[in-house]
Amino acid sequence: MKKLRVLTGVTPSGVPHLGNYVGAIRPAIQASLNPEVESFLFLSDYHALIKCHEPDKVHASTQAVAATWLACGLDPERTTFYRQSDVPEVMELNWILTCNTAKGLMNRAHAYKAAVQDNAEKGQEDPDHGVEMGLFCYPMLMTADILLFNADKVPVGRDQIQHLEMARDIAGRFNHRYKPLFTLPEAQVDEQVETLLGLDGRKMSKSYGNTIPLFETEKKLQKAVNKIVTNLKEPGEPKQPNESPLFDIYKAFASQEETAEFTQMLAEGLAWGEAKKMLAAKINLELADKRERFAELTAQPAIIEDILQAGAEKARSQAQPLLAQVREAVGIRPLK
Ligand code: ADP
Ligand code: TRP
C-alpha cells in the first residue's frame, strides 16, 4: 500500500519560535514517527529571501532551523530532511506552475493583500509600493515544494491554510489541462493549537520581532514570558482566557485537563505574574532536553551539513521521475 506522504517546511528567516514549534515542527515530527507515513521535512531557504535581505541572517537562521528540527527529534534515517535550495527541481517546477496559474489567484494571497492594505493605510498612492515579485508569487513556490513530492498532508499553522487551498487549485488546473500527475494536498492543522500570538498580541512571527524563541536559556525564557501582554487586572480578580495571549500558549503545551485547571485558576483570580511562572515552567518541561541537544548540534555545523546533503540526494531522486513526467506533459521533450 502507498504510504501517506507528509511534508512541511520552515523558513530560515530568523530564530525559530514557539509558534513554529507547535504549529509545524512538533506535529510534523510526530507524524514522521508513524511507520505508515513517508515524511519530507525541509528548510525553505528560498522563501527566506522573500522576507529577509540580510545574507548573514539567512545563513545563521538556516543553521538554527536545521538544528531545531534535529533537536526536536527528526530522524534523518526515516525522514527525507533537506534544504530547498539543494533541490533545483523545485525551481524548475515552480516556473512550470507559474505559467499555469492565474494572476488573479495570487492577488488574493494574504501576504500580498496585507502589503497592499498597509500601503493604503499609509496613504501610499501605489498599492504595490515596495512589493517584490517573490512576495507576490510566494504561494506558488510553496505549491512547487508540495507538489514536487506529491504530498498528501501538510502540517502547518492556521495562517497557511489559504496556501494549501491555492496549491490544490494549481494542482487541479495542471491535472485538468495536461495530465493528472499531481496529488491534491491537504493542510493538517492541530485542533488543539491556535495561531499563537506574540508578546505584543499580534501573530507571533519572525517578521514582527515579537516572538518567544524556542531555545533560550530557562532564565531568558521566563523573561520573555514576563513580557507577554496582559491587562491591569489585580491578583484575585477573575480573568478570562481571551484576556492575554499567554493562555493559548499554555494550552499548546498542556493536556486538556491541565488547560481546564488553568482556566479555572484564572477565573478564581490567579495573578498574571503567577500565570506567567506556570507557563514558563510548562514550556521548560517540554523543551529542556531539546534545548541541550540544540546546543550540541549548533557546535557541529559540519555534521548538520552532511545530514542535509544526504537528504538532498534522497529528495532529488524522489523528485526527478515526477518532474520528468511533468516536462513531458507540457511538451519539453528531447528531439528524436
Ligand atoms: P514566521 O511567521 O515566524 O516567519 P514561518 O512562516 O516560517 O513563521 O512558519 C513556519 C511554520 O510555523 C508554518 O507552518 C506556520 O504556520 C507555523 N507558524 C508560524 N507562526 C505561527 C504561530 N504564531 N502559531 C502557530 N503556528 C505558526
Ligand atoms: N511558507 C511557509 C511559511 O513561511 C513555509 C513553507 C515553505 C512551507 N514551503 C512550504 C510549509 C511547503 C509547508 C509546505 O510558513
Q: At the third CATH level, what is the topology name of the largest domain?
A: Rossmann fold
Number of helices: 14
CATH architecture of the largest domain: 3-Layer(aba) Sandwich
Could you state the oligomeric state of the chains shown? single chain
- Proportion of β residues? 5-15%
- Give the tally of structural domains: 2
Overall mean pLDDT: 96
- How much helicity do the residues have? 40-55%
List the secondary-structure elements in sequence, H or E. Answer: EHEHHEHHHHHEHEHHHHH
Q: CATH homologous superfamily name of the largest domain?
A: HUPs
CATH class of the largest domain: Alpha Beta
> Main β-sheet, in a few words?
3 strands, parallel
What bound compounds does this protein have? adenosine-5'-diphosphate, tryptophan
The termini sit apart by 37 Å
The gyration radius over C-alpha positions equals 21 Å
Class derived from helix and strand content: mainly alpha
Using brief descriptors, characterize the structure shown:
336 residues; Rossmann fold; Tyrosyl-Transfer RNA Synthetase; 2 domains; three-stranded parallel beta sheet; two-stranded parallel ribbon; 5 strands; 54% helix; 7% strand; globular; binds tryptophan
